[in-house]
Amino acid sequence: MASTVMQTWKDSTPIGSATKWSYDMGVVLKGLEGLWMNTGDARYYNYIAAKMDYFVQNDGTIKGYELDEYNIDHVNNGKLVLLLYRITGKDKYKKAADLLRSQLRTHPRTNEGGFWHKKVYTNQMWLDGLYMGEPFYAEYAMLFHEDSAFNDIANQFIWMERHARDSKTGLLYHAWDESKEQQWANKTTGTSPNFWARAMGWYADAIVDVLDYFPANHPKRKELIAILNRLVVALEKQQDNQTGLWYDVMNYSGPGKEKNYFEASASSQFVYAIAKGVRKGYLPAEKIAIAKKGYDGIIKKFIKEENGQTNLHGTVKVSGLGGKPYRDGSFAYYMSEPVIVNDAKGVGAFLLAADEMEMLPTLSAGKGKTVLLDRYFNSEKRKDATGAEVYWHYVWEERSHPGFYTFGTIFERYGAKLKSLDVAPSALNLKGSSVYIIVDPDHVKDNPKPNYVTEADAAVISNWVKAGGTLVLMANDSANCDLQHFNILANKFGITFTNNSLNMVKNDQYETGVEYPGANNPVFKQPKKMYLKEISELNVKAPATSIVTKDGKQIIAVAKYGNGTVFAVGDPWIYNEYLDGRKLPAEYENFKAAEDLVKWLLSRK
To answer: End-to-end alpha-carbon separation of the chain, Å?
Structure first.
């Protein structure tokens, strides 16, 4: 399907509209972002960047975007603006994100709970708008420390469920008019007449995406998860038993019901929300059966190989309320809208669903396991755009070159949960973690007050390994890492990081950083050729053994220690710069190496 997208909307041709900043584009590009993270293939990233750069100008203005329209649909593409800002740090993306953020305003009377759908639709909230605005708002708030925004974000969902949920079915009406003045609005409740499937799909997807950025300890996080669970209970009742799909207008039994049809975009949205909700632990594990049944139905009913490409049939082009000509929200109206092939909204929804469903075979590898990343020995901070001090070097959250974001997504694809440790390790805070990763411990060049590894730290960590933990030690060359104290720990396992630096690559002379894992390597099964630069050579003795060497020099080692395992390499190696495909030539298979390492680490007993 991604190939079809890239063939249909080539080069810099916009998705949706060449003259308007269209939300359709963002739905597709979020699907491609997931595919990039699941493959390490930078073609998808480059495609995203090209599409966004057609609109985002060097001064941060956005071609075709009109702020004073206050159209919440136009915020959706901001998710990709933030992606590009986090990866590149370019100021134009920050300015564009700020512009979109300036559009978001709370309810003018109550100061809570409701962004009107558009300036021309005052007093109205549509389910669609929650997807368009809230995930961007949540990620922006997380990045730029707008902590108070999370109350507002949660209230959007709570407010909409309160006013649009049908007490009998648990389904949500397409929209709600506070003024009750619209022709389509119920004069008592303000709700529109019907349950439109794609609107509920937007709402469900918005919840699981917002939760990616919602603070773990926020009191309203549980409320959002409860809303999602209630919604999925209602969706399960509406799923067709034979096909696994959902009708365009849900729970409709009135005149003309025979015209109702299974709809591709909504079915894909529900599959995505449920599969992601189960993977993230928001939904009971057994609910994955709904997603599996739905995904099978999508493949059978809507996916067709035609004229050398993969096509998605069965997506309604649009459905709305009000406007000119007036859309009254009746069943007859919904049935009047055209159903088309490869509609961008449907294709994007399908890509998102496929991203999730294609993870299912790998999730069992790390089920119930936590991967803990040190932020104490490596505690580098820098000021972000707000002036706040934030962790940035070899950390899960960092999407720029020096981050471990891509590495973390691989762990998540194999079912593991990610955590960070900001204090000295202890028996208590290591308990419950299956893998503990320490990378590039600071010296004074990195941190004026470094937390050096001590004998006490080494004792705590080695006892944890002996009891069955899996430890990853990633150093750096001696000029960029405190090896002296790190070796207090490494020596426990027969490993010494030396001051002899290897693979000192100049500029883009990649061939000087080549490493061959060799046949029958116990860890690296897929890659034939890897890339490592500026490595600390290892000295290895029992219980450790080398698994990668170069010209007789030891590069990577493993050790069995009690009931646990240690993996050591003299470089951080698989940070974003050398993992996500944007820099390395494709012949260097670091992404495959990272996949193999993740599988191996999670398989240790």
So the answer is: 39
- Rounded-to-integer distance, Cα 482 and Cα 496, Å: 12
* Residue 257 structure tokens: 């019901």
What span, in angstroms and rounded, lies between the C-alpha atoms of 365 and 416?
A: 8
Closest CA to 416 of 357, 360, 374, 366: 366
> Residue with structure tokens 């096509």?
311
Position 239 pLDDT exceeds 80: yes
Q: How far is CA 493 from the centre of its chain?
A: 36
Query: What is the reported pLDDT for 121?
Result: 66
How many residues are listed for the chain in this entry? 605
Q: Which pLDDT value is given to residue 116?
A: 60
Q: Name which of 469, 427, 269, 411 is nearest 351 in CA terms.
A: 269
Q: What is the mean pLDDT of residues 114-143?
A: 84
Q: How far is CA 578 from the centre of its chain?
A: 19
**The CATH number of the domain covering residues in 104-358:** 1.50.10.10
Tokens standing for residue 14: 């916009």
Location of structure tokens 């950390």: 395
Mean pLDDT confidence for 287-311: 97
pLDDT in tens, 342-392: 999 999 999 999 999 999 999 999 999 999 999 999 999 999 999 999 999
Name every residue whose Cβ is closer than 8 Å to that of residue 226 and which is 6 or more positions away in sequence: none
Radius of gyration of the chain (CA): 26
Active-site residue among 11, 59, 73, 128? 128
> How far, CA to CA in Å, does 598 sit from each of 163, 275, 369, 436, 580?
45, 22, 12, 12, 15
Close Cβ partners of 85 (under 8 Å, ≥ 6 residues apart): 93, 94, 97
| Cβ–Cβ < 8 Å for 233, 170 | yes
Give, as one character, the DSSP assignment of residue 76.
T
State residue 113's pLDDT score. 36
The three-point CA angle 581-582-583 to 5° equals: 95
pLDDT, tens only, 478-531: 889 999 999 999 999 999 999 999 999 998 899 999 999 999 999 999 999 999
Beta bridge partners of 566: 471, 559
In the residue annotation, 41 being an active-site residue is answered as no
Burial of 497 (0-12, 13-18, 19+ CB in 10 A): buried
On the CB side of 209, how many CA atoms lie within 13 Å of its CA? 28
Residue 40: name the closest of 600, 599, 575, 601 by CA: 575
Average pLDDT value over all residues in the chain:
95
**530 residue type, one letter:** M
Residue ranges covered by each domain of the chain = 104-358, 363-603
Tell which residue, 270, 346, 348, has the closest CA to residue 313.
Answer: 346
Within this chain, domains 104-358 and 363-603 share the same CATH topology: no
What letter does residue 111 receive in the DSSP assignment? S
CATH architecture, domain 363-603: 3-Layer(aba) Sandwich (3.40)
* 3-state SS class at 62: strand
- Dihedral over Cα of 351, 356, 361, 363: its sign: positive
Q: Report helix, strand or coil for 216.
A: coil
> Which tokens go with 320?
């709305």
Question: How far is residue 162 from each of residues 110, 210, 283, measured CA to CA in Å?
Answer: 15, 19, 21
Q: Stretch 71-92: mean pLDDT, rounded? A: 96
CA atoms within 13 A on the CB side of 589: 13
